[in-house]
Amino acid sequence: MAKRLLEQKQRIDQERLYGPREALELLKELEGAKFDESVEVHVNLNVDPRRADQMVRGTLMLPNGTGKVRRVAVFAEGENAREAEEAGADIVGSEDLAARVQNENFLDFDVAVATPDQMRVVGRLGQILGPRGLMPNPKSGTVTPNVARAVEDIKKGKIEYRVDRYGIIHGIIGKKSFDLDSLVQNYFAMRDELQRVRPAPVKGRYFKSIVVTTTMGPSIKVDPAVERE
């Protein structure tokens, strides 16, 4: 793998800013791993995450999904539980599910959704779910009375984004097997969304740098000034 990575890097001009389409096309051409790698975007924003008015966080429905099958756990009871199951939730429960998480360290899911009344149950799991990014949150749409809609959106490719302590957003915009147009559309959907939620206090250049990469591949610098191709 090290030899292949070196060969891949030799095809990339590290001093150049590529257009988004050109960068993604080059990523697809590079010989990579034997599995279908995810295509990632890492955006360095000119924000200070320590300030509440510069926290960049939200959800985004990618037009072409992520290509990743996501397991969804839903904390709900009664009719809400039935609707979640019909919508395709992988795990549904309440006190019983919380007990599995707490006592058996059961974490075989990628996203957790809860109805508002279930937060009394989920709240006890904060120390387990929180550090893993699995804690339901109203801002990300994972605490909602409409759990069926939430499950459907997640299954279709709805993603959550959140700036880390270094001011960087990390996101997956598809698989290497996606056609080029689909990856380009997803890239600009993410870029447009980040531009839409630009914090008002931020002055000057907002996008400091953007790179695209694959799970096992090298990164390619993208021109952050390109808004559309």
CATH level-4 homologous superfamily of the largest domain = Ribosomal protein L1/L10, rRNA-binding domain
Instruction: Classify the secondary structure makeup into a structural class.
Output: alpha/beta
Shape: globular
Number-wise, the strands total 9
Helix content: 25-40%
Terminal Cα span: 33 Å
Q: Counting H and I runs of at least 4 residues, what is the number of helices?
A: 8
User: What is the CATH C level class of the largest domain, in words?
Assistant: Alpha Beta
At CATH level 2, the architecture of the largest domain is 2-Layer Sandwich
Domain module tally: 2
Major sheet: size, sense and barrel closure?
4 strands, antiparallel
Q: Which strand-content bin applies to the residues?
A: 15-25%
The CATH topology assignment of the largest domain is Ribulose 1,5 Bisphosphate Carboxylase/Oxygenase
Pfam families: Ribosomal_L1 (PF00687)
GO molecular function: rRNA binding; structural constituent of ribosome; tRNA binding
GO biological process, one term: regulation of translation
Function: Binds directly to 23S rRNA. The L1 stalk is quite mobile in the ribosome, and is involved in E site tRNA release.
